[in-house]
Amino acid sequence: MADQGEMKDGDLPPDITDWSKDQVRKWALSLEGVGVSAADILLQQDITGPSLLLLETTDLNHLGVTFGPAKILIHARDERVKFKREESTTSTNQPGKSCKPYPFCRYHDTLCYVESSILDVTESGASDFIEPCHEYKAFINTTDETKLDKFTTEVIRFAAACMNSRTNGTIHFGIGDRPYFTHGQVLGVVVDDKEAYVNELKSAINCCFDYKYRPDAQMCVKPPRFVEVLKKNTTSSDKCVIEVDIVPESAVCAENFYHTLSKKKSKKKTKEAESQPTRCFYVRDGGSSRNLDQSSVEYKQFTDSMAQQSQLRRNAEEKHLTVIRSSTQGSRLSQMITGGSSSLDKSRFERYVIVTNKSHPSHFESIGFLIELNPTAVLDFDPESAKRGLQHHFDQQSTASPHLPAQYKITEGVEDIANKLKLTRNTSWVFCNGGIESEAPSEVDQWLMEKGASVRDVISFLCRKVVLPNKRFLVIFLLLSAVRNRMDPLIEAFSMFWQELRGTGQILCIFDNEKAFTSWRGLIDARCGINISDRCIYELSFAEVNGTILSLWSENRRAIRFLPCGGDSKVALERKEEQSLNTLEVLCVNQCDGGNEDRIVIEENFYKGAKVSWWNFYFSEQPGSTPFIKRDKFDFIMDTVIPDLCSLRKACVLLNLLHAPGCGGTTLAMHVLWALRHRFRCAVLKNGSPDFAEIAEQVVKLLMHHNEEQIPKIPVLLMIDDFDDMEKVHDLQQLIEKECANKHVQSKSVQVMLLNCMRSECSDLTEPTADTVFIGNKLTEKEQKMFEEKLVEIEKTHKNADTFYGFMIMKKNFDNKYIEDVVHNTLKSFNMNQRHTRLLAVLVLLNVYCKGSSLSVSLCEDFLGQPKPVCGSIKIEDGFGKFSTFIASCTVEGKVVYQAVKMIHSSIARQCLKELTATHNVTKAEITDLLLTTEQLYESTQGKGNLLQDVHHILVKRNHSAEEESQFSPLIQDIASETPGMEEMVLKNASKRFDKDAVVSQLLARYYYLKKKDFSEAKIWAEKAKGLSKDNSYIADTSAQVLKHELKSVIATCRAESVSTENLSFCLKTAQSAIEAFRQTQNLAKRESIQRLSNRTDNSLFNTSGCLGEIQVGVLIIDLLEKTPVFSPSDTVRHDIMSQVLSGDIKLQDVERNDPRHNKNRACYDILKQFEDVLSNLKFRMKFHIDYLDNLFVNLGSRFGMKDSREQVAQNELFRCFRQYAKVFCKTALLSKNKMMMMMNKMMSAMIFLENAKADTYFGILNYLSKDNTTQTMEKIARQYRFVCQRSLNLKDRINSIYANVVLSRIKLDSREILPYSKLINLLSEVLREQIPLNDCLPLYFIAVALLWPPSEDPKCKSLGSFISQMKTLYHEELKEVYNGKSPIVHFMLGKKLGYERLVNMGEIRRIVARQEEFAAIWGNGKIWKEKRVKELLFRATGEVKRAGILTDTDIRDVKVEVAPMYRSQISGYAEGSKVSFFIGFSMKGPLALDIEAEV
Hints:
This protein is α/β, with parallel strands linked by helices and 1496 residues long. The protein has a 7-stranded parallel β-sheet with strand order 17-18-16-15-19-20-21, sandwiched between helices. β22 and β23 (570-573) form a beta hairpin. α12 (329-338) packs across α20 (542-550). The longest helix is centred in the C-terminal third of the chain and has 33 residues, at 1061-1093. The two termini are 89 Å apart.
């Protein structure tokens, strides 16, 4: 019964202000510690409800109420007022939802009560002895001093009643009753000291029960249970419900009677003292405990029937215990969670999604299976999960990305969202009821309205075919707390999944007790009208569920994985750590140990053409197996290349394994990793992550794992497979270097080795270089013999070895006849009208023109119309019928991870394409059209993004070479050759498929201006491209190119001797428009470059096409003007006049005035005058851009010494344009007989010569260092500068003269044209003392630093620090638009000799290397510094590490010069002040330290 003291009547109004003075007295009497005298004083003083609210303790003392009762009265009133106020704000006075009581006699269940929910059992007496009776106590009108006494009194009374009545029972403290609350309403109480309740109850039992029955009572009265009370939004509160269970077992109680001693309060007016303890005999009477008068007949009857009562109790216990549960749910769980395979290693489900609710700490020991399942997503409805719940526990052992449902709203491409969320890489933990990022939780009744829509977005997103594989993922409802409310969010979540998945076949529900299941089943039936029983597991505890699921993994999967550490030791790679390395597939030393994979299936897949797996190497090492075939280059890599690279002092080194397609390059690379897994920390880079910064961070994390203090560290060997661009490899290498530096990893030895396995179509690369090994498609005799031996073993263990084409192609030494026969015989029944043949044709086309392309299994199933049974065993390869032997399965690490199919071998794919054309008359255009126009291929399914990317690639990706750029992709060129004209239809269909893609519109524009010469159509497509990508310089360049090519076309059609006025006007107008368009390209390119500077991972190069395009238009204008009568009145072109006009030296009107044929040419002059602004600036603009590009090409190189073929094409074109420029502007003037004029002419001739020789700039002069056979030219340049400087004080000329002498000295030291070294230094000193224009500062400081480097005796050497500091600033200011993705070129190294010979030209170092193609490799990895002749040539400086640089020691007192390390990682890990030695190189960015090592 509800306890308001002893008051049982319910006539008190809820509102105190409505109480009369008699009701105030009744209320006072109901309070523990308030006697009759105090209550009567309130009555006598006419204290009603309103006046009671105004009383203070001092008022009651003044009226005669003693201090103790006065405090109790005021406290009880305040508590009631507070409670009513809380009721009004939280609506607790409104009946809540029904809930079940906490399971009887259980302490570790996870049930929590929710404020104001209603227990669905009533206060009751004995029923069947086993079903517990209940009694509720609000427990609110008690003071802190009386709480424990009140608690023990009520428990003893209730316990004795239950023991005498032989019934189980539970008394609840914190549960309300009428009249103030709804019957069974959860209120909760605040408990500060739980231990005090436990101890006080034990003491009370000893005090109140007879001595001989105290042991019985201690056994029957269970310890208090404190059940947490949640707020309505399911967050924690500070309240709980105290419950005590009574279990009067027959073996304990027998036929005993249990009397208790109780203290009774006196309510008389004259006495407030306690009376003597009374002996009571309590029994259960309905919903209350009643004390029987021991002299009454009722008492005698009750005691006489005790033997019968005890027997009934005994019978009830025996009946309860004989209900033995017979369950097969363990095996059902095994089948349901694996899709029928009974093994999670071979589960037919690829992904798992978990839906769960409020957890309890007791669960955490029993959910290890959740970590092992590695769920794709967890939908968690517990708002406190991140603080103290399941996610908090999970995050300690695994990696989870916390998300809110709003992040799943589709605002962009589905695959892009999945990629951002790392949906298939980390477990996505979705907080479906708030709990993170200040997201407030919702109450049960409000959740659907406030959060239901966003959670539906999550569920809809996960169920999309493009995200998770259709029919191949399982949704597990893990109900950690019972669901009893029809408005519970989990009911809605179930309904949403049920609708999205169209049934329950992909849903599994797990409970740990039958009551929770029964409630769930009823609620689901009411909500969805279905019986969920056959998809539920409820007869197993969570511990049993955990054990069952974990047992479904192989020993290998459950085993601890190890990494190598120093001294042949090993360290554990914890699961959370490994999952955090989600861009890497880590190869551990105990990889595959204890596995139970199907050897036959794995080997068959590999021999057919699938990618090799670690299991193939493992199986080959088992007893009875022949060893895995070692390619000849294997031992060379293991014994020579890798040891050489490991000896280098560089944080990250590179080994390129280039291989012909299909020749086993990837297999060889993985074989190397397998063999080195005990010596290196090996990993393979997954293909899906484009974020190189993240990869670099994870690689260094793998390096440092339990390896922080060890020196040297066990290095990481990272395999990169099938990057399509070497530049990307170097980007990654650079970022790993930076990350090593950031983490202060010392690079005294190699820390990370990149094994770059890359396809190469170039078959003439046979000899290895320092960092490159090539694997061709020809086997040696030794390799052929090993393949023969392996075939014998294969034929013994495999029945269908004749279809192992991947193996047989290599065994046949890539014999074309074998491949042709296999393809011809297999494709005999090919019919383009059948679905599986059309799909094969598409797959073939993609594989030929796009390396590594594939089609997702989901797409193939949809296209082929294959049935998709939930967790079925149908193999997708079977859908290709007779062609299935050409198909292999693979896993694709794209924006989402998914299963796919690909062609087994590149040579099979190429031959298939030939066979389709030759035998079946299926053209490439027809297949491409099918690929572009078949909508079903692009419906929402897994791999759609990758397919679009591959299709885009085969349409637009061009091949580049140093000689020229191909105009179109190989596919488009092949279509144009095979079926001329069909390429236009293909491209138009491409524009429809990619209607929002600027690059495809650009492609159409290029096609029309290059191929069709339809410039009007080209302009339309170019403008569309610009509209789709307004800020892209390459797209803007297309519009300019259209105009340029139109201009070129019109000029080419003009007659050789003259051009009409109409054509002249059109051409000049077009040229003007083209120049404006190219300038727009230049502006966009510069803006892009500046933006890239803030993005450290974007190494895209500066787009030079705008600058080069404007130069090309200038050349075309010159060509055009040469055909005009103004500049070509006869057979001879008047370049002298043209040069002056285009230089702005004379006006056209002056030319016209002096032209004897000006009347005849008036129309031409009129047109030329309209464009005089363009013409008069032409030389200046051309020269400006020529110098701009030359500066870039001379002073900046690729970061790792690589040649960029596209840049080489640009340089070749720039050279061609300059020759045209020089033809007009660099003609030597005729000498005059006048001495003054003669001298001026000689000066002019000298300057013209220098410009024509590209020696009028310092970078033009420096460029002679890299040219061959330039001695005579360079001597003439030096001679001309000596002549110029004798007659001119121009600062730039004198600086250039210094450069000319230095460069000539490096080409021919004994040349007579070289100034003596001392005079050169004097000239330099003179220049340094002058006022230096800003434009000349950088070249001057560069040459000054190089020439004055200590121990120079020139006093200016003390200013080197200032020069170097200014160089860094000037380098950034002058080259910031172009240096992104580049490194400053080292023009000179510091040598050991004196004078001119102190500067060692890089060409001298190059000549030391026997094979020039090797130089870039050994320069990049630092191996060059090990060359003996290089060491003899260069001076090795010393210095000390200072912050991010090195202070170089010099022979001059107090002079230390700062140099920057070429690779910052080489000084990371060195303590401040550490002594190091190094070589010094001179670049425009300042002096650089190379080959840094600790000074011994």
